[in-house]
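Bench log, entry 3. Co-assembly request; chain sequences pasted below exactly as received.
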Amino acid sequence: MDIARPLQPTADEERFLAKLAQLRVSHPDNLCARYLTRDLFTSFGAAERERLHDCCRSGAENPESTVGCYILRPEDLHDFDAFFGPLIRQHHGTLAAEQCITDQNADDMDLAALGLPVMSTRVRVARNLKGFRLPASMDRGERIRLEQSMVQALRVLIDDPLYGGRVYSLTPEFGPDPANPNLIDDRQYQALVDAHIMFRNMDQDRFMKSGGLAADWPYGRACYVSADRSVIVWIGEEDHLRIISMRTGAELFEAYDRLRQTLTAIEAIPGIDFVHDGAYGYVASCPSNLGTGLRASVRVTMPSLTKPGVDTKAICRRFGLSARGVGGEDAPIGADGRMDLSPIRRLFLTDRDILATLFGGLGRLAALA
Ligand code: ADP
Ligand code: ARG
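Structure output for the full assembly:
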């Protein structure tokens, strides 16, 4: 009897599997290592293994990854459901289910009443466009075409008096002709990063670099900023687009409303169609951004939570919140108590639930402080 046996792994695959096996023990929070077992990997044929290896390279090369994989094509989610399904449910589902607060009445969500000094709010969604490969699979030409088509599309906002503003681009050249009219220099770029408007140098992000998302930097990387600097659209970062509404103070709902209006305006632009999946919502490069793709964050100062010896991230996680330093995702949280707090979950719940989780979690943290 001829029983189909799994293909023997190649030497390269053996090294990859050995690394993951080692990380499963040394770094239990690395979800990629936890879920990509040898049996699972070898259950696929050669072509699928190569694709799965590409999705998981970042987790194997960066032990401290918390997710450790990226989606390179929308169909990866279903072709590799045996891998992505449990990993996604772990990140967004079971673990955070008890930590998600959904019974909060919207009318009662007044951040100022919590007595926490909220310095600013930022609400964003991650979106990818049909008609382009996902960021980790793009080449330089496609990244440039994406930027050029978005610069054209976002004229709708620039020409609208409610938005105005302009595009700032990092693409050195689009080709000999025409020159890039939106190109900024290093000093202008740094000023936008310092103002928390523009994204940081992706080539210096080891997770994105291993995953192929930083390739061709800085080609195809740009951002639209409204005249009052409260609406921002990142072009060509971890997802094709990050649509952002940001403001000083505690007006979380106003920031969210402005984001919804902007999203509606962008969705109405002819040719704009976002990649959406029946099971996993809006498709993002990172499994952590699937679903609503919404990250609602407030910047607060809570020095009692950042004192030496206090595990700030673990305390916030208990309430379904992720704590980041004020310089962005991987920036350290300083002892001065300043941090950016946002709900971890974006999938299997509504935008309103996300705002309620943020509000509820902040209330519980305020009670501890
Ligand atoms: P994301 O993953 O949501 O796109 P990052 O953590 O990479 O965001 O942060 C991007 C930029 O936005 C950083 O400069 C960060 O300091 C800034 N930022 C995030 N949250 C806030 C906030 N609530 N107020 C002001 N700036 C913020
Ligand atoms: N790939 C990184 C990790 O696994 C980032 C995960 C979440 N952040 C993000 N920007 N997608 O730790």
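The CA atoms of residues 71 and 188 lie 32 Å apart. The mean pLDDT is 93.
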